[in-house]
Amino acid sequence: MKYREIDRENQSSLKKILDSPKAYLKSKKPRDEFETPEHFIFGDILDMMICGEKDEFDEKYIVVKDEIKCSDSIKEVIKTFFDRTKDSLVPIASHSARELLLSICEEVGYGQSWKEDTVIAKLEKEGSPYYKFLCDTIGKIPVSDSEYAKTVNCLASLKASEFTAPYMKRVKGQEFFDKLVVQFEYAGVEMKGELDRVIVDHNVKTVQPIDFKSTGKSNYGFQYDFWKFRYDFQAGTYYYGLAVQPDIKALVDKGYTLLPFLYIVAEKESVNSPFIFEITEDVVRIGLYGGTRSNGKVMEGLANAIERLKWHQKNDKWDYPMEHYIEGKLKIEI
Hints:
Structural class: alpha/beta
Strand content: 15-25%
Number of strands: 11
Shape: globular
């Protein structure tokens, strides 16, 4: 069974309830992958290059030229034509397309002072590349060739760095488990998680969990984004989920060491080399149970999120956070 088909809670949704109950509900709705933000697409493609199956990219994405030279007005006509004929994919140069194209031109006000033959000739000449693009991308997410080239460069930097290269290619005595799905229970809630890579090194008897990240910023700022995006929550949840897996527990019982969770971060523009960030026990603890950081900021963890989820589910109240329902107001504290 694929990860998305497993009906269990996941850390991505649970940490949303720390923002608001409605944010949690929104996260549970099916997402249209064609509306995925560009920076998520970049990360998804890089993940596929590192950890995915060979044909996974071709099934989901298609690389297209950066620029299709076509005016906005012609694009409007061709896009409308495509939307109305995409079930049959009528060629725009065919005789049967002529009447519909002229009708659409009249609707949008394109080429009204020209002869019909001139309008059709211009649409065929300048609109054909755009129409072919629309046909080729049916059922797939288009990616510009320049964006695709950046992911290739990103992958190359990960393989070239003296620090990250050992995590990119296994050697004799190592096993790589990519997109490893873990299922477990925490505080009475059935959970799931998907780790990018887990390396079992039989040579030195270690188990190394890894998550790959890409960033549009400098790697030097990741330590700040780490807390902003609550990667401590992710690391804590995944680390716990991995630790309680029967196969991993069996290895630990045999003397293997479960190493600290690693985030390997590569820049989208590849200005700086990729960095490795090791997650300490204190950070994992905050991700799981909440706590106070060194700067005095109080954070909630997985346990707090589950407590909130259970309260909202039991009372079926989702418009306000739990405290507001209990106290009738929220407090602002120093």
